[in-house]
Amino acid sequence: METIHKIAFGGGCHWCTEAVYKSLKGIISVEQGFVASDGEESSFSEAVIVSYEPSDISLEDLILIHLYTHKSTSDHSMRNKYRSAIYTFGPLDVERSTLALQKFQKNFKKPLVTKVLPFREFKVSDKAFQNYYYKNPYKPFCKTHIAPKIKLLLLQFADKVDHIKVLDQ
């Protein structure tokens, strides 16, 4: 078994981001909460920490999925709460993440606002909000905001989706 890798993603609501990554093959765990980085990004912002098996899903795949499942080209007024970011745990991930963003920019008409930032601190979400989508798939928020992201996964990244988990919903 290969070493488990970690990366963190922020962009939209962490309920949404958590559901996206919990729906994929090769994901060991997803921790939902708030991440802080350095400097101007030292305030906490909604995010998830993803532990994954690189032999089952690559960092590039995780990044591409992240870019398509939140508003990665929108510098909207809620960016402090929903920072579009890839939080890295080491220099190799900084390089790989930066190269992936450069590679995937061609897939988007507008410039990506997603930043590669160092992971510094994490605060876990309240237990009541963890695994929110898979505990509450029929709640209006889930049907309106999260289900379309899961549908996008099924359409664009079908080979990466854990169909058993997703189809149980």
From TrEMBL:
Residues 6-142 form the Peptide methionine sulphoxide reductase MsrA domain. It catalyses: [thioredoxin]-disulfide + L-methionine + H2O = L-methionine (S)-S-oxide + [thioredoxin]-dithiol; L-methionyl-[protein] + [thioredoxin]-disulfide + H2O = L-methionyl-(S)-S-oxide-[protein] + [thioredoxin]-dithiol. One of its GO terms (molecular function) is peptide-methionine (S)-S-oxide reductase activity. It comes from the Bacteria. Keywords: Oxidoreductase. Its EC number is 1.8.4.11. Signal peptide: none annotated. PANTHER family: PEPTIDE METHIONINE SULFOXIDE REDUCTASE, PEPTIDE METHIONINE SULFOXIDE REDUCTASE MSRA 2. This is peptide-methionine (S)-S-oxide reductase. It comes from Arenibacter algicola. The lineage of its organism: Bacteria, Pseudomonadati, Bacteroidota, Flavobacteriia, Flavobacteriales.
